[in-house]
C-alpha cells in the first residue's frame, strides 16, 4: 500500500465503504444508484465513463462507483477494483438473451485477485416487468456453485420502483462493516 | 557619528545573544533525548522531523512546478459535469504516482529507514492532524484532483486554447526543433500523395 493510501485511510473522518456497480449495459446500474440517492430515475443515458456518488448510510459514508457496461468499456472495469470492498452486480432480469454473456462476465470478475475479499451483492433488477426471471432461475443460469469463502447474496429489486434496493444495500453494507470495522472500532 | 558604534554594538550584542540562545536550545533537546530513555520523546522528535520534512517537500518550489506542469499537460481532457471520462482515471493514477514518488524519494533521502510500514508504525495511535495531513489527504482524493484540474483549466486556459499553445511553444523551446514546420510539410505532402 502506498503512502497516500495510508494517509487517506487514517484521515478519513467517517467510516468509508467503497462499492463498485457493475453488470452489462442497460442492466439498470445507474437507475439503481439514482434511486438510492433519491434522484429522478425516469431518465438515464448510457454511462460512457464513470460516476461517483457519495451517500450517508447507517453511519457509513458510501462511495458508489458506477461504471459503463458496454462491451468496449468492460476492459476498463479493472481500473476500479483497487480498494473495492463491495461488488454490486446488476442483472436485467428480462434480458434472457444475454444471460450467457452476463454469466461469463460475472465469472471473470470472481476470479480477479483484487476482488477476492469483496462482498458480492447480485441485484436481480427490473422485477417490476412482467415475465422477469425469478432470482432462483437467474441463480441456476449463472452457475454460482463454486463461491468458496466469498460473502454473497442475490436480492430481487426494481430500480424504477425502488423495491428491494434498500434491502440489498443494507445487507452489503452490514456485511462489509462487520468484516472491516468490527475490530478497529 | 556617535550613533554608529552604538548600532554596531547592538548588532554585535544581538548576534552573541542569538548564538547563546541557539546553543542553549541544542543542549536542551540533546539532554531531553538522552534523559527520556524509554524512547517516547525520541519517537515524538522523529514524528516531528518526518512531518516537518513532508511539509518541506509539499511547499518546495520543485514539487510545485512538477504539479503545475502536470496540470498544464493534462487539464484539457477535463470538463465540468458529473460523469467522468475514463481518461480521468489514468490521469489520476499518474498524478498519484508522481506525488507518491516525490514524497517517498525525498523522505528516503532524509530518513534511510523509511518505508510505508515504518511510517505507519511511527504514527500509529497518533492523530494525523494539521495542515500537512490535510494537504496530503486532498492530494489522495479523486474528487479533489478533478476539481484541481478544472480550476487550473479555467484559470489558465479558459477554453483551453491558450494552454495548448503554451505547451507547444514550450516544447519547441525545450527541444529546439521546428515541429510546426515539420507538421506543415507533412500536411503539404499528403495532398500530393493522394
Ligand atoms: N422497468 C424497469 N426499467 C428499468 C429498471 N432499471 C432500469 N430500467 C431501465 O433500463 C434502462 C437502462 O438503465 P440504466 O440505469 O441506464 O442501465 P445501466 O446501463 O446499467 O446504467 C433505462 O431505460 C432504465 O429506465 C427497472 O427496475 N425496471
Ligand atoms: Mg449506467
How are the SSEs ordered, and which strands pair?
The complex is a heterodimer of chains A (185) and B (194).
Chain A: H1 3-11, E1 15-22, H2 29-36, E2 50-57, E3 60-67, E4 86-92, H3 99-110, E5 119-125, H4 135-142, E6 152-156, H5 165-180
Parallel strand pairs in A: 1-3, 1-4, 4-5, 5-6
Antiparallel strand pairs in A: 2-3
Chain B: H1 3-36, H2 40-59, H3 61-74, H4 86-110, H5 116-123, H6 131-139, H7 142-157, H8 161-175, H9 179-193
Magnesium ion binds at residues 29-30, 47, 66, 68 of chain A.
InterPro entries (chain B): ARL2BP, BART_dom, BART_sf
Protein name (chain B): ADP-ribosylation factor-like protein 2-binding protein
Organism (chain B): Chloropicon roscoffensis
Q: Explain this structure to me?
A:
The complex is a heterodimer of chains A (185) and B (194). Chain A has helices at 3-11, 29-36, 99-110, 135-142, 165-180; strands at 15-22, 50-57, 60-67, 86-92, 119-125, 152-156. Chain A has a six-stranded mixed β-sheet, with helices on both faces. Helix content of chain A is 29%, strand content 23%. With 194 residues, chain B is mostly helical. The model of chain B is unreliable at 1-36 and 160-194 (pLDDT under 50). Chain B folds into two domains: 1-34, no CATH class; 42-157, Adp-ribosylation factor-like protein 2-binding protein fold (Up-down Bundle). Helices cover 80% and strands 0% of the residues of chain B. Chain B starts with a helix and ends with a helix. Classes of the chains: A alpha/beta (185), B mainly alpha (194). Chain A binds chain B through residues 1-8, 10-11, 47-52, 73, 76, 79-80, and chain B through 82-86, 88-90, 93, 96, 99-100, 103-104, 116, 119-120, 123, 128, 133-134, 136-137, 139-143. Magnesium ion (MG) is lined by residues 29-30, 47, 66, 68 of chain A. Magnesium ion binds next to helix 2 of chain A. Chain B: This is ADP-ribosylation factor-like protein 2-binding protein. Chain B: Residues 48-155 form the BART domain.
Amino acid at each position: 500500500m502506498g503512502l497516500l493510501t495510508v494517509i487517506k485511510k487514517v484521515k478519513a473522518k467517517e467510516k468509508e465503504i467503497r462499492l463498485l456497480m457493475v453488470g452489462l449495459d442497460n442492466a439498470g446500474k445507474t437507475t439503481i444508484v439514482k434511486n438510492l440517492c433519491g434522484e429522478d430515475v425516469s431518465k438515464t443515458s448510457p454511462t460512457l465513463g464513470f460516476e461517483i456518488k457519495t451517500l450517508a448510510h447507517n453511519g457509513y459514508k458510501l462511495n458508489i462507483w458506477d461504471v459503463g457496461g458496454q462491451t468496449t468499456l468492460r476492459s476498463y472495469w479493472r481500473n476500479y477494483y483497487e480498494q473495492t470492498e463491495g461488488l454490486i452486480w446488476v442483472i436485467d432480469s428480462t434480458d434472457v438473451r444475454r444471460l450467457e454473456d452476463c454469466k461469463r462476465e460475472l465469472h471473470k470478475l470472481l476470479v480477479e485477485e483484487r476482488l477476492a475479499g469483496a462482498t458480492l451483492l447480485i441485484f436481480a433488477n427490473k422485477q417490476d416487468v412482467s415475465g422477469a426471471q425469478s432470482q432462483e432461475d437467474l441463480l441456476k443460469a449463472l452457475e454460482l456453485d463454486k463461491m468458496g469463502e466469498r460473502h454473497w447474496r442475490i436480492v430481487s429489486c426494481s430500480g424504477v420502483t425502488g423495491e428491494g434496493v434498500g434491502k440489498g444495500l443494507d445487507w452489503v453494507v452490514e456485511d462489509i462493516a462487520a468484516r472491516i470495522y468490527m475490530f478497529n472500532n | 557619528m556617535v550613533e554608529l558604534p552604538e548600532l554596531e554594538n547592538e548588532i554585535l550584542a544581538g548576534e552573541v545573544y542569538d548564538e547563546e540562545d541557539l546553543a542553549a536550545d541544542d543542549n536542551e533537546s540533546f539532554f531531553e533525548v538522552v534523559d527520556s530513555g524509554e524512547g517516547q520523546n525520541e519517537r515524538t522528535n522523529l514524528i516531528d522531523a518526518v512531518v516537518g520534512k513532508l511539509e518541506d517537500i509539499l511547499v518546495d518550489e520543485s514539487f510545485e512546478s512538477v504539479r503545475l506542469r502536470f496540470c498544464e499537460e493534462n487539464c484539457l481532457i477535463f470538463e465540468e459535469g458529473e460523469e467522468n471520462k475514463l481518461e480521468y482515471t489514468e490521469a489520476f493514477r499518474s498524478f498519484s504516482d508522481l506525488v507518491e514518488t516525490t514524497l517517498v524519494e525525498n523522505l528516503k533521502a532524509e530518513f534511510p529507514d523509511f518505508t510505508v510500514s515504518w511510517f505507519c508504525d511511527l504514527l500509529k495511535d497518533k492523530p494525523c492532524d494539521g495542515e500537512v495531513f490535510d494537504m496530503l489527504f486532498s492530494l489522495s482524493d479523486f474528487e479533489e484532483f478533478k476539481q484541481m484540474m478544472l480550476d487550473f483549466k479555467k484559470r489558465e486556459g479558459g477554453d483551453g486554447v491558450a494552454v495548448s499553445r503554451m505547451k507547444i511553444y514550450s516544447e519547441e523551446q525545450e527541444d529546439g526543433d521546428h515541429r510546426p514546420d515539420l507538421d506543415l510539410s507533412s500536411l503539404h505532402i499528403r495532398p500530393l500523395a493522394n
